[in-house]
Sequence to fold (383 residues):
Amino acid sequence: MKLIYKDISKDSSGQVTLIPEDGEDLWHTFNLLQPGDSLRCTTLRKVQVESATGSVGSNRVRTTLTIGVETIDFDSQACALHVKGRNIQENQYVKMGAYHTLDLEPNRKFILGKRCWDTVHLDRINIACDPSQNADVAAVVMQEGLAHVCLVLASMTLIRAKIEVQIPRKRKGHTQQHDKGVEKFFDSVMQAIMRHINFEVVKCVLLASPGFVKDQFYDYLFSQAVKTDNKVIVENKSKFLCVHSSTGFKHSLKEVLMDPAVSARLADTKATAEIKALQDFYRVLQHEPDKACYGIKHVELANESDAIDTLLISDALLRSQDVALRRKLVNFVDSVKDSGGTVRVFSSMHVSGEQLGQLTGIAAILRFPVPGMSDCEDSSDED
Fold:
């Protein structure tokens, strides 16, 4: 993300001009947008045109519109962001108050205005515009006949390809059909890797599977690369890492990223930091339950005592349209930082974020037990 201009006054109102560069920047933008914001960018609009003879036709014209944001839709597969609202500035083609949907795309500049830029929004802009945050990881999670090629970005996990190939069973004395099926499967996975993984950006490619499938594919990949003189694969051999997973589905990425060998390799990526924070929370909850809690009421009680050492919060919660709830959550974040604690904002597009969402979306590791907080597992319905 490129920050072109920032003008935020003392009362926290103002606007920023940004240029998203990829799908992940659009995800950051999705988390910045809220109903009531103003959004300005170029767009195409179909307009009625009356000729000198009185006939009416329609043309698509490019114009710049400013809308008051009402609804926001993010398509994670297509990495497209659609923002709908009413026009709030005079325009020669669009009447004031008329509805329009702005489509935000990579490399298209936009201006976002807010009545109040809180610390969570400002932190997200700093993260999105920091090049060091783009330490990308690719993963191929597979089992015999099934593979998912994923990109593990700083804030989301994208499935770039799903490969399914029917592999005949091995039969005594007749293994040719099975071997051909396996070769066809491995070739399809190799082609998907070449098509969807940019080795100039990716720092590590994880090959994960139950059993020996990953090892067989690793051998096949590099033997084929040598045969076909595929320099991209050969030159990036050191980036490939074979690890165990229980299945070939996306949810197995969680256990893959927890692997100590993987954690050591990816020590500087946000995805691993999230996984480690969640792992630490579960460990504390199991061994010292008085020093871990989850749910808004329990976290609020812990925050009042300045007891929070690490706050884990889902970005899905921070996108809440309930103004009072969002203000309370932002106060949690600011309070924990002011008292020297750590705040981890989990992406709901990550496996770890999905898991935190099942725990109400907010949890905390405490410095000391808080009197009056019974069992943290006994969350109320309101949480």
In short: Residues 271-366 form a domain with the 60s Ribosomal Protein L30; Chain: A; fold (CATH 3.30.1330.30). The chain has twelve helices and 16 strands.
